[in-house]
Amino acid sequence: MMYKTATLFVVVFAFVACDDEYSTVGGEIIENTSDLELEEVEVTAYSKKINSVQTNNFGNHLLGVYNHPIYGQTTASILSQISLPTNNPVFGVEPELDSVVLTIPYFSTEGDLDEDGNIEYALDSIYGNTPIKISVQESNYYLRDLDPEADFQDRQRYYSDQQDLFEQNLVGDVIYENDNFIPSPRAIVSYEENEQGEQDTISSGPALRIKLPVDYFQQKIIEKEGSGVLSNNNNFKNYLRGMFIKAESNEDDGTMMFFNLQDSNAGIELFYTNEVETINDDGGTDTIRNPKQYKLNFGSTIVNTFKGEYPGDVLQAIEDSNEEAGAEKLFLDGGEGSMAVIELFESEEQIAALRENEWLINEANLTFYVDQDFVEDVNEPARIYLYDLDNNRIIADYNFALNFVQDGNEINPDVSLSSFSGPLETDDDGNGIRYKLNVTQHVTNIIEDEAENVRLGLAVIQNINITNNSAVRNTEDVDFYPVMGVLSPKGTVLHGNLSNNEDKRLKLRIYYTEIN
Question: pTM score > 0.85 for this model?
Answer without folding.
Answer: yes
